[in-house]
Design brief:
Helices cover 38% and strands 29% of the residues. By secondary structure, it is an alpha/beta fold. The chain has a single domain, classed as 3-Layer(bba) Sandwich (FAD/NAD(P)-binding domain). Strands 1-7-6-5 form a 4-stranded mixed sheet, with no helix packed on it. The model has no long low-confidence stretch (mean pLDDT 88). The protein binds flavin-adenine dinucleotide (FAD). Flavin-adenine dinucleotide (FAD) binds next to strand 3, helix 2, helix 3 and strand 5.
Length: 161
């Protein structure tokens, strides 16, 4: 069973900074994420909503151009596909930023999967991964995979100084 000084579950608001502090202090740390790097704020919360609010505000101001001393040449129309693409781009950049930052930290191991406590100092990790099917036949030239589950156990120190 692999041992770390600390195991952090989740890459939301606190996890990555905590991992960086432990790693920077020379502690071995594992950080586990089961879904998207950056958690709620980056992927479905603060960042995506604020980019969409920014688009709405820009439209609002553009429609009141006369009041602000300029004239728009045509009706200001909303293109929701472009609004969403911008939102996806901004939040995708943060999501990749968090992942790249964590993967680049010395002493930090990034693990993907669902973490569960097995004991007060043991964490079990269930991972989803793709395994090639036994037959090497391909469908339209593409290799075939099936989804598999695997699990690993990790142990961490009870006290950190
Ligand atoms: C629409 C919306 C708008 C918001 N706007 C704002 C705002 O403007 N300002 C503000 O301050 N807050 C805002 N929030 C709230 C903010 O997003 C949350 O408070 C914050 O993201 C919580 O951070 P967290 O790290 O506690 O949890 P999360 O960000 O949810 O992170 C938890 C992470 O842990 C992972 N995880 C959980 N359990 C496991 C497990 N067993 N194994 C492996 N991984 C696991 C999850 O996949 C997730 O990535 C908003 C929320 C929403 C929904």
């Amino acid at each position: 069973m692999k041992h770390f000084d600390a195991i952090i579950i989740g890459t939301g608001q606190a996890g990555p900074s905590l991992a960086a502090r432990f790693a920077g202090a020379g502690k071995t740390v594992a950080i586990i994420e089961r879904h998207k790097f950056g958690g709620t704020c980056v992927n479905t919360g603060c960042i995506p909503t604020k980019t969409m609010v920014a688009s709405a505000y820009a439209v609002h101001v553009a429609r009141r151009g006369v009041e602000y001393g300029f004239a728009a040449n045509s009706d200001v129309r909303v293109d929701m596909k472009r609004v969403k693409a911008r939102k996806d781009e901004v939040s995708g950049r943060s999501n990749r930023g968090v992942e790249d930052w964590l993967r680049g930290l010395k002493n930090c191991t990034v693990l993907e999967g669902h973490a569960r406590f097995q004991s007060p100092t043991t964490v079990a990790l269930t991972m989803k991964f793709l395994r090639p099917t036994k037959s090497s036949s391909t469908l339209a030239g593409a290799p075939r995979f099936r989804r598999c589950l695997g699990s690993m156990m990790f142990h961490f120190s009870r006290t950190l100084r």
